[in-house]
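dumping this here before i forget
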Amino acid sequence: MQYECDVGYDLIGVATRSCTENKTWTGVEPYCKKVVCPVPVAPTHGEIAWRGHSFADTVSISCFEGYTLVGDGTRSCLPDGTWSGSEPQCKPVECNPLPELKNGRTVTKSLTFGGKAEYTCDSGYKLRGTRKRTCKADRTWSDREPICQLILCPDPPTVPNGYALTP
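structure:
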């Protein structure tokens, strides 16, 4: 007698048994056990939903806010004990580059989610607005773009019995 299991099941025990002279079968009766895949692991900055990790079970992968899934969002346990598709990753979303600040500088540390940008003004100009901005989950920058405003001084005071020279 030869035993085989259905797809997705492994044979546990001896595949071949013979009938002996005393009308009993040799060996221990084998059985078919469902194939098991490794326990799924959530990607960094993501989570995984699953109810089992045996043949034909599926897992769903999703990313936290501010991250995009790269790879397969649904994977199935295959007959050979591996997961279908590729190992997914959660990559941070990217904001668009910020324009250069007129009469100032924009220093962007990172364009990805959580990345910071900082503004400074040239000499003779004062920053109006927020000095720092952050790349948000919706791929936009926090706050509004500031401006560098020319510092205007009032006319200098007059000097009694004297006068001001302009450079």
